[in-house]
Amino acid sequence: MDGPGRSRHVYTPTGAIEASRGLGIADAFARDRRIDSDLEKVKVTNPGPPAITVLIERREAARAVWLRMVGLIRREIRQLIA
Questions:
Q1: What values do phi and psi take at 46, rounded to 5?
Q2: Which residues contact residue 23 at a Cβ distance below 8 angstroms, ignoring those fewer than 6 apart?
Q3: For 69, phi and psi rounded to 5 degrees?
Q4: Residue 4: pLDDT above 60?
Q5: Adjacent-strand bridge partners of 47
Q6: What CA–CA distance (Å, rounded) separates 26 from 68?
Q7: pLDDT tens, 8-56?
Q8: How many Cα atoms sit within 13 Å of 67 on the Cβ side?
Q9: Domain extent listing, the chain
Q10: Looking at the chain, which runs of residues are DSSP E strands?
Q11: What are the residues facing 6 on neighbouring strands?
Q12: Is the dihedral of CA 45, 46, 49, 52 positive or negative?
């Protein structure tokens, strides 16, 4: 949060946004399942595009990467349900 004594880090994309190894959520879940094989029904939270793009400086830049974020999130969800 912004406020006295607090700094908010913001980011400006300088190239294509990639996540060749995914966002890490599906990998973390697979690791947890290996640790506890009794995990059957669990809730896995996945960030949405607003949570990922909120720290991108300039709204135009955030909107420009929105669809890319949606694609990365969808890919992660597919890995989770596979």
A1: -130, 130
A2: 46, 47, 72, 73, 76
A3: -65, -40
A4: no
A5: none
A6: 18
A7: 678 888 888 888 998 999 999 888 888 887 777 777 888 888 888 887 8
A8: 1
A9: 44-82
A10: none
A11: 3
A12: positive
Q: Give the Cα separation of 1 and 4 in Å (integer).
A: 10
Nearest to 78 by CA among 25, 41, 14, 11: 25
Return the higher-pLDDT residue of 2 and 48. Answer: 48
Under the banding of pLDDT at 50, 70 and 90, the label for residue 1 is: very low
Q: pLDDT-derived band of residue 71, with 50, 70 and 90 as boundaries?
A: very high
Query: How confident is the model at residue 72, as a pLDDT?
Result: 92
Residues forming a β-bridge with 11:
56
Residue 19 to residues 25, 33, 49, 72: CA-CA distances in angstroms? 12, 23, 14, 7
Q: At 56, which amino acid appears?
A: I
Q: Positive or negative, the Cα torsion across 20, 68, 64, 24? A: negative
Token pair of 64, please? 């420009």
